[in-house]
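Changelog excerpt

This revision adds worked examples to the README so contributors can see how folded entries look when concatenated. The first example is reproduced verbatim below.
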Amino acid sequence: MQNTFIRRSVLILSVCLLTACSTLERKAAVPASDLSRAQIAGLPSSRYLIATTAGINNFVDDVKTMNQRLSKQGLDSKSRYLSLSGGGDNGAFGAGLLVGWSDNGSRPEFNLVTGISTGALIAPFAYLGKEYDPVLREVYTQTKPSDIFKSRGFLSGFFGDGLADTTPLYQLISKQITPDFLQKVANEYNKKGRWLLIGTTNIDAGTPVIWNMGQIASVGTPESLELFRKILLASASIPAAFPPVMFDFMIDGKEFQEMHVDGGASTQVFLYPSAAAARAKEIGVKRITDRQAYIIRNARLDVDWQQTERRTLSIASRAISQLIQAQGLGDLYRIYNITQDDKVGFNLAYIGADFNYPHVEEFDTKYMQALFDYGYQRAKKGYEWNKYPPGYRKSIEADTEVKPELLNSPTPSKKKLK
């Protein structure tokens, strides 16, 4: 996420490798052969292992079942999708953009909302609409580092499972995700067929997991409420910086655990798997013609130049930051290809190179306030969504002379949001 956390994580990893530090106790991990059979006690299957054919089929079957159930009422004539990426306190950009979009009067109701990491924390409120804009404004303009984590001493972090304690973040999540909130999510899912999907990473299996939050909310028990909260926490739990979240599963009456961390360990942003679209066509899932996807990348996409110290940790930290940047760009190209193959409109927002407010620390309140306002002002005026990923050749008109500098910069859409 942020460079300071990355540097500290690299330091602890390096020392652990040198000293073979001990590990904390945990239950046995779910065996690879039983991942699809594992169930959380008392709760129905509510997640999709999208790296597997079975997981894709389960997802598409649930979509088909939902559509069939709602077909008597008639499906919407158009669909709008929203994808919210990771980015730590850069989530203030996405939060500000959504609130500004509401105040512009053109923000649609989304049929699908997906979230990763900080995007996962935004997603439930974006899903329920502008009624929760005040929550987004408060969280992303008033939050302090102490509202997110408590730093552990070096030895505690070194011999524990993370540099910081995220109890404050769980308390912040719990304050907003109440039984009443869960009921509202369940109503939108069951009555309108709207989907809320959150991504985490099963670090035991090394695979991404997508959770159907509407299905979880529909259970309506204290256990489902706790699971809903824990999934949001897991999606935002940066490996080594924050502790992982442990989920208890049952298989043939035996107890197991899965260790889940930040969804960003698998992908920075997701829409839906391309294999799911292909499967939907195969089994005759009804397709809506007018579909638009809005992707909010809570990060800058321009080159972040800085002179790197000639030290092992500095070099490793810088390399990890660049890997995350490259992963995020790759995700945007992947989503673009999915939308083109599936005939869905592509609309991209991200932090522009013109935003240069100083960033002092993780969850820097003043930085988040400035970034929230940056996103808010652009959306309120009518955000100019980019129609292609950065550097994509088709962003340049075919009859226009190609200039080398254009190949490395995004081309903004001339059409404003309507």
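The second example, added in the same revision:
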Amino acid sequence: MESKQLKWVLLTVLSLIWGSSFILIKKGLIGLTPIQLGSLRILFAGIFLLAIGFKSISKISLQQWKFIAITAFFGTFIPAYLFAIAQTEIDSSVSSILNSLTPLNTLVLGSIAFGLQFKRNQIFGVIIGLFGSALLILNGAMNHPEQNYYYALLILIASLCYATNVNLIKKHLSGMAPLSITTGNFLVLLLPATVILYFTDFLEVVTVPQVQNSMLFIVILGVIGTGIANIIFFKLIQLSSPVFATSVTYLIPIVAFFWGLLDNEMLTPIQFLGAFIVLIGVYLSSKK
């Protein structure tokens, strides 16, 4: 398959996986605290990746390890906890919408801090996509005034972390195999995630049925939604541009909304309109 076609296939698969992550977080929070959820997500993903990609670590040079460590914390560690904390107050669908700010942050950081060049149509695409996201956000706020939107700031911070991560990968790790990057990331994160989990009451509540049930959702989230998804994402960055790769965050809310329907979260006509505008933004941001 040609790179031009493959990048769209990867974008679609990634949107389905990450669009499902928010409902998994929501289900995981039923029996786990946000800190426990974030730590277990990293641990399950790390164990899976080391099992399938341990040999790939040898391909990482000594000079590259500093960028592996930095991208690990910006791309996975910090967002894993921020999203879990934010979803204690904000619906999973709203959380996914706010995540769509990532391409704009990627564009701004890429041009200011990393010297990356972007076309005018990519800028228009990001702006149009953000306009569609704004419709979704405002409509969600109107329909859910009881939600604490201060927690939305946590998702905005996570979005900045993602933007930093994708630009670092494109500039410093672009030639490295996606499996090597991902496995190296989680090798770095296993120890801090384990230490954080230890200092919660997880060992005391792990035998509680509700906690064990929530852990099943986090196993799926860690292995598929984090481990496998990161491999696909890094491959997508290498095949395309940082802005195109992060435009997956435009499609994620659409998938998350359909999961929300199954969990009794209703879509409004304005939200459907916003989703359509978002797709236009994806097209423009990826067009040559």
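Reviewer comment on example two: The longest helix spans residues 209-239. The chain is about 80% helix and 0% strand.
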